[in-house]
Amino acid sequence: MSGVLQVHKLNCDLYIENFIQSLPSNRYYRQNNELKDNYCSWFEEKSEFSGTRSKLSNYVKVKNVADKLTRALCSVAFTNKGDECKEKCHNLYYWLGNELLLSDIEEKSFSDVIGILENFSNVLYESGKCKCTFFKNVTKENFAKMKIVYDYCKDYEEIEKTLELHKKTCDSKFNDYIVKANSAYNEIYNCTEKYSDTYCMQLKTHVPSCFVKKLSALKCTINDLTADEQGSSYYDTTHIDQEYVINPSAFSSSQIFLFFVLPFIGIFFIGFLLYK
């Protein structure tokens, strides 16, 4: 029976992860920044292109993602000047910064690399097209809070709708996700009310609608899902790109077999030792 429960728990965790990945912020990051096409080929003849990009190689922990970061900037450079440009630059800022956090970049280098990426955007600039300006005077810790709140603001309506659909019940993992986001939002909202830190005010300019009036805290009651609920798509993932869906059916029959059998082997082995 324990093997069955393990399989159901695995399914549930996968569906929750699918839901989180299907939220608007994550959809945007994937569709617009994780690019296979090399948009930079159009700009390689610019005089400062190679020199500016090569500066990223001075940072050991950035070298492996430098190409990925610059391709995203090159893609945005094709956008016309205006509101779409601003929106893309804001999204790009949080994606770029998060990539640097994932690379475990040193604190002292974080804002420097953000500055290099901004300079690279300036090099790509053509008249009437998009040029990004990034907020650089920020620590890794404060940037991480900014990104949590930025994503929360972008995803708020989708999460709220899903909670209403399921009568504001959720499992502990999803509840942890909401509690963390609520906490970060409250901290930065209060910060903007006091005008105490520049990073808070900067975030407010990125998602102003989120700070006109304080958002109601999203809450849900933790309720362990039944086996039937764990075996079905409990959360709405209709908008997720299928390429990124972690599908339980991808597990082989032998892997599923092990989930059932291993607990019984363990019981048998312990019994054998006690008998001896």
TrEMBL record:
InterPro entries: Plasmodium_Vir. The chain crosses the membrane at residues 256-275. Keywords: Membrane, Transmembrane, Transmembrane helix. This is PIR Superfamily Protein. It comes from Plasmodium malariae.
